[in-house]
Amino acid sequence: MAWIYWSHPRTSWIRDNSAMNLSDPNFQLELAANIAVAGSILLAGRNNVHTWWLGIVGCALFAAVFERSHLYADMVLQFFFVVISVFGWWQWLRGDHGAPLPITRLPARAWSWLLPLAVLATFGYGWMLTRLTNAYAPYIDSAVLVLSVIAQILMMRRKLESWWVWLLVNTIAVPLYYSRGLHLTSILYVGFWINALVALRHWRHLMRAEADTGRAADGIA
C-alpha cells in the first residue's frame, strides 16, 4: 500500500528536497544516523554487546531526523531506545545473576497477552497522534513504534523471537519511510530486513550451541 502514502499532500515538501545531496544538512544528519544504526544492528545480529552504545548514538540522531519529517511516534521511539539500550547493555553483561545473559525462547503463553496488547497499543497511540498532532500515517507510524518497543524489550532479554518481530517492523517501515522521502533510510531498512533474517538463523544456532555446552557441563559435574 505504499502508493497510498505517495498521494498524501504533506509529503510534497520532503519529496522535493529529498535528493541525496551531501551538502544538504538534512541529508548529512540522515546519513550519520543510518551509519550508526546500521553498525548497531549488524553487531546485534552477531550477538555483540557493543551494539548498545552505538545504538544510543544512532537513536539520538534519528530522533532529529524523524522530528523534521513529522513522524512523531518514531521520534518518541528513539528516546525509548536510548533508555532501553542502557538497560540492555547491562542485561547482556550481567543479567544472568552477574553473568552474561544467554539466548532463550519466549514462552508460548506470553503471546496470548502480548499480541492483544500490541493491537490495543497501536490503535490507542495512533488515535492520539491523529487527535493531537499533524502526524503522517499515524496508525502505521504507531504500529512501527509499538512493535519496535516489543522487539527491543525481547532483544534486551536476549529472546530469539525478537528477530521475528523485527522482520515485521522492517516490512512496515520500508514503505512508510520511502513515502516520506527518507529514501536512504528506507533502503537501510531493506538491509535491516535481510540482517534480521540472517540474525534469526545465527541466534538460533548460538542458542543450540549454548544449550549443548550447558548439557555437557552438567554431565561433567
Structure report:
This protein has 221 residues and is mainly alpha-helical. It has one domain (23-99, 117-220). The chain has nine helices and no strands. Mean pLDDT is 84; it is low at 1-18.
Features:
single chain, mainly alpha, 9 helices, 0% strand, globular
Question: What is the topological layout?
Answer:
Layout: H1 2-6, H2 12-15, H3 25-45, H4 51-68, H5 72-94, H6 111-132, H7 138-156, H8 162-179, H9 183-220
Helix pairs in contact: 3-4, 3-9, 4-5, 5-7, 6-7, 7-8, 8-9
Query: Number of folding domains?
Result: 1
Individual helix count: 9
Fraction of residues in β-strands: under 5%
Number of strands: 0
The average pLDDT is 84
End-to-end C-alpha gap = 57 Å
Q: In a few lines, what is going on in this structure?
A:
With 221 residues, this protein is mainly α. The chain is 76% helix and 0% strand. The protein has helices spanning 2-6, 12-15, 25-45, 51-68, 72-94, 111-132, 138-156, 162-179, 183-220.
